[in-house]
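Archive maintenance. Older records in this collection stored only the sequence; we are now back-filling the structure field for every entry so that each record is complete. The fields below show one back-filled record exactly as it appears after the update. Entries are processed alphabetically, and MBL fold metallo-hydrolase is next in the queue.

ARCHIVE ENTRY
Title: MBL fold metallo-hydrolase
Organism field: Neglectibacter timonensis
Length field: 261
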Amino acid sequence: MILHVLGSCSGTEPMPGRHHTSVSLETGGKLYFLDAGENCSYTSYLLGIDQLRTDSIFISHTHMDHTGGLPELLWNLRKLCTLSPENEERLRGRTIRVFLPDLDVFDGVCKMLRGSEGNYETVFTLEPHLVEDGELLSSGLSVSAFHNYHLGTPAQGEPWRSFSFVLRAEGRQILYSGDFRDFSELLPHLGGSDLVLLETGHHRAFELCRELLHSGVPFGRVLFFHHGVEILRDFEGELALAREVLGDRVSFAGDGMRIEL
Ligand SMILES: [Zn+2]
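Back-filled structure field:
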């Protein structure tokens, strides 16, 4: 399984060398996206990642730093089909699943796509799915979602709007925090993760390292992503603080980073 960091920033103003949050996973000959911040399609294309293998896209919540690149990602799949008959054949009849916690946003994205070239007529089908607690996908890559409190508690009868994910494939497990409020939200789902992705847009990395250490739960490596302005102001200093707690198990994500699991 290969993880690519396509965008490592939280919802900051434009930052040199960094884009908003997105990660892709390659496993079993398929490609999956976790969040789709600005430029995720552009970055993955330039990294040489084969987007025609896209199987599913998972959006943790619909803030712009996680969805801004979604229309362009979907638009680019159609564009790639127009480049060669071989490309078109590879996507013909395929279904690409898009999981979001708010399907109104998917409708808006589709309206945008239809307003682009060719009424967004494609040889493949986009299939929207609502993200809810529990298993979202079980073939190839297994993906389970659990809600967090980043967007607060929904009103009576309203759905949860912000999620974290647990992903499993090839005997490996990844916890993807999305944006979250408190470490305790992640703790029940953390155990046995070979890689823990934790966001720093709302948290200090070294504090989360301490929580991880004191949790007593077994985990492998830790990758901090979704960087906020505070961490970007003193990237090396924050990394040093985190490594004082967990040593070389800790990395800070940068755009274009590749991790093999
Ligand atoms: Zn965010």
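Update note: Residues 37 and 64 are 7 Å apart (CA to CA). Residues 10-11, 21, 63, 65-66, 179, 201, 226 surround zinc ion (CB under 6 Å).
Entry marked complete.
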